[in-house]
Design a protein that fits this description.
This protein has helices at about 5-20, 30, 40-55, 60-75, 80, 95-105, 110-120, 125-150, 150-165, 170-180, 190-195, 205. By secondary structure, the chain is an all-alpha fold. It has a single domain (about 5-195), classed as Orthogonal Bundle (Hypothetical protein af1432). The protein is globular, with a radius of gyration of 19 Å.
Amino acid sequence: MSKPDENKKIMYLIQQVGTLMLMQRNHVRNLGNITFDTIASHCFHVAVIAYCITRMEGFSHADGMRALSVGLLHDLAEARTGDNDFVSKNYTTMDETRAVEDQFSGFDFAEDLKKEIEEYEKRETKLSKCIKDADHIAQMYMEWTLSWQGNKLAEKWFKGDMIHRVPALHTKSAKKLVDLIKNSDPQEWWWNQFVDKGGPNLKHLNG
């Protein structure tokens, strides 16, 4: 049973997570219009992608769920540091280590969470590399989707990432996913099932 002071620390952690739903990612100024992601939604997407990559790489379901969990928390420090975009990172240094230390302190299971984030940041294990690859793919997915909506700046960033970001991906599975995304469109997931395969689903299009 946690103590009253610990309960408050847990509540503070929950509040910090909540602020991520309000924080738009700063890449908005580089992509030229309002993007559709917050830090919270980005973390959710990274989490699901991280699970998929770990399973594609031969990890167990349990490992995949661990990757999913870390993906959800991987940018939690930005509740304190804010989000630096590509330009800002050339001029500022965020003390994420201190932010993580402060966030995960004062309650019983804090150390467990902190260890997960520290492993991710060190990027020494295969699992942490899968999660980082998921972070890259989530960013590229954002750019790719906006490019389909006519955003030329997003298209430029996506093409640049194909040259500079993709070769640095740690896993073959991540590179495979990027290639599939590049040769698809944002609606293929449902168009394939309900239109290309025909059948009774087409009645919703042709009445």
